[in-house]
Prior knowledge:
By secondary structure, the protein is α/β, with parallel strands linked by helices. The chain has helices at 2-38, 75-86, 97-102, 104-112, 132-150, 166-175, 194-204, 218-233, 241-244, and strands spanning 64-70, 92-95, 116-119, 156-157, 178-180, 210-214, 237-239, 254-255.
Amino acid sequence: MIGVVRRAAAAVLVAAVCGWLSTLAPDDGPVRLTAAKDKAPERRSEVPKPKPKPPPPDCTRVKCLALTFDDGPAESTGELLDILASRNVKATFFLVGENVAEHPDLVRREHAAGHEIADHSYTHADLGRASKKTIVSELTRTQDAIRNASGVTSKLLRPPYGSTSERLARITRRMGMAQVLWTVDPFDWRHRESDDIERRVLKQAKPGSIVLLHDIHPTTVRAVPEIIDKLAAKGYVFVTVTELFGGKLTPGKEYRELESGDGQGLP
């Protein structure tokens, strides 16, 4: 008799539990659906668009000057980039391929800061006396190193020592590269005194000048702040080489300065 009662009680309990669960089932789905509907969609953070670059100055109307730096990058280049950034000055860097391969991070910094990056051969070779095979190798390897470091394909070449030739002109014309020389040379590679470098640049500078400097020498880097400040006080505006010539340079042609007539630098 007791067993029959226990079995009956168990059956009642099972029926009660099943009935209770059945009352929950219809509500369970909608509850979860409602929760999904109420959840706010995730918002993706938008990458800010870079500010548009202001148009370059008209260097036939204002006193433009291009600061250029050869032979880097080197350890002292980082300090120079800080100096240029603090004064909002853009320059042109003629890079040696071997140094690009050794310091690609500095090349990326130059590019990110808005400076112009250009070719100065791979081993600082005398391209004016070199064979066609050597010229092509020197330029191509440097172009590849610059492109690997920064994504930039340079359109400018400064032949080391200013040594050029008809052969080099033909090759650079075919490669789409203009040759950039200079008009202001303080011989900073020979005279390693910052005051002397500054004095020579200030004495030679004129509107349309291209200034030759070397960022591999700390003495040159230390001269740059005074050079910029004193020339700016005289009304000079600092531009890249391409900006100096209005963005139009002919491949193969040599450029030493902007010669734009008597109107240059006048309001």
